[in-house]
Design a protein that fits this description.
The chain is an all-beta fold. The chain is built from no helices and eleven strands.
């Protein structure tokens, strides 16, 4: 399985960004995809996740109501729409996936494959 994240950049507080994760190589009909972030000096944090086979998504409390995870119909692209961005959202964002799970999790241990990170900087 291969993942590639993109869409990061510099944005002012209150602004929006959409991150994309291109996924390929799945061998199972069931998989989960998560977005994680890591700021300097801090542990990796689960931001949001979805299941491809269930109508199931999760969000960290810190982004609930501001971020939206979605995927295209083919399941090859997963997006993270980030609105009302705050300076504390600044981090490297990663997408990750694991096969044969129906319910996603914000815990990073469940995920086997990781894409490279994309930097998001929220600053005026």
């Amino acid at each position: 399985v291969q993942l590639q994240a993109s869409g990061g950049g510099l944005v002012q507080p209150g602004g929006s960004l959409r991150l994309s994760c291109a996924a390929s190589g799945f061998t199972s009909d069931h998989y989960i995809i998560g977005w994680f972030r890591q700021a300097p000096g801090r542990e990796r944090e689960g931001v949001s996740c979805l299941s491809n086979s269930l109508d199931h998504t999760e969000y960290a409390d810190s982004v609930q109501g501001r971020f939206t995870i979605s995927r295209d119909d083919a399941g090859n692209m997963v997006y993270l729409q980030m609105n009302s961005l705050k300076p504390e959202d600044t981090a490297v964002y990663y997408c990750a996936t694991a096969e044969q799970f129906r319910h996603c999790s914000l815990g990073s241990r469940r995920y086997d494959y990781w894409g490279q990170g994309t930097q998001v900087t929220v600053s005026s």
